[in-house]
Amino acid sequence: MKYEPTIGIETHAQLLTASKMFCKCRVPPSSGRGRVPLSHRRDSMDNTPAPPNSLVCPVCLGMPGSLPVINRRAVEYVIMTGLALNCQIAEFSKFDRKNYHYPDLVKGYQISQFHLPLCHDGWIEIQANGRAKRIGIHDVHLEEDTGKLVHVQGHSLIDFNRSGIPLMEIVTAPDFASLEEARAYVFELRRMLRYLGVNSGNMEEGAMRFEANISLHPVGTTTLGTRVEVKNLNSFKAMLRALEYEIQRQDQVLADGGTIRRETRGWDEARGTTYVQRGKEQADDYRYFPEPDLPPLEIKREWVEQIRSRMPELPHERRSRFTSEYQLPSYDTGLLTEDRSVADFFEQAVAAARPKGIGPKVVANWITGELFHLLHAANLEITASQASPEQLVELLVLLKGNVINITTAKHVLKVMVDTGGTAKDIVTEEGLAQVADRSELSSIVDEVISANPDAVAQYKGGKETVLRFLVGQVMKATRGKADPNLAADLLKEKLCGD
User: Fold this and answer.
1) Which architecture does CATH list for 438-497?
2) What contacts 87, CB < 8 A, 6 or more positions away?
3) Once rounded to an integer, what is the mean pLDDT over residues 156-176?
């Protein structure tokens, strides 16, 4: 019998607030903040490293008698995310205590939301396997993060700096039927959260973590199989590998006549396998009850509409607009809209280029080609480049006017990215203006012809590809400054005229 999977995904995303969820302690700078563009951050963020257990107080240490206070900005970020995910925003919400015991959970319970989350019943559209599919969002809710265990030489130490950081949990419906759909979802979700500025998306810093629920059922049936949960998947790669392994494991168990147990499993990255953590007899085994120290939340419609009015254009909206407004192919729009800062840079450059007669496609080619190459080599975000959109356009104007050739333009762009200098100044200071004077270039072509008699003979004998070599020699003689088209024309004239 053949089986097919049903998958649901829970995403824990650290919110980019300055302070923790229920106290005024500063959020540690290493907590998933690393490379979020400055233009997207809404709070003052101190990047000074913090020693272990230095950013704590009685509240986030769970000391008796301490009282939590709700972080308004965190609530706002969850509502913003819910709106982006087409959710219903609850008019009444509350916090609950989620009881479980683990060394890094200082209180013995986590303040979370269970019965009345802030956002519910939404959806997101993904593109997978060549078609669009709508994935249901069960809810989006708020909770606090735990501390961090550090294992050193056989001992386990605890750093509570992370304890109490605002976490947003996004829970999907069991709507994924393949790894491709799961992959498309997590990348689109990350894109969206970065556009909103509520999460950095930096997996290597723990900014996003996943849990997956997987079951198998016979092909052609609709009754879902027994669900297995895989927890604490800390990267896209880990999540997809764990899903692939668990689907294969369950398929083998069923093929051998066994039954799937409802359980929670962990992921062993080194071995590439899941392993049993504990059995799970029912959906809710955390003994939730209302948090007595926090009042219920009443969400006013006016506040929701204010948040909606401040939301940026979302990735899928920008992709659609770039295709229609700028007539760009889908590949280009995908690259340009992957990051909000890149999309902003592109639009600023297009606005400056249009009056100069330079089209969006030319701008897109230079950003996704040479500029991306330089930024990647230097490990820089586009916001860290010293070349502004307007400076890039100035370079393209010089190229269009044949003041410089494309080889020189690439060199000038590198200097611009490194130093912030303008294209015009760099060309002047380094003497890079293109040699486009016919008489000046003619004498150089004569020298190249005299210095390469074998190549000349081959060309005259019918081997036309040799012309590229001769043009290269002209470029070398002019240190790359010659107009290659003019050089080719002069070579043809002189060689065919002999």
Assistant:
1) Orthogonal Bundle (1.10)
2) 119, 120, 121, 122, 137, 139, 140
3) 96
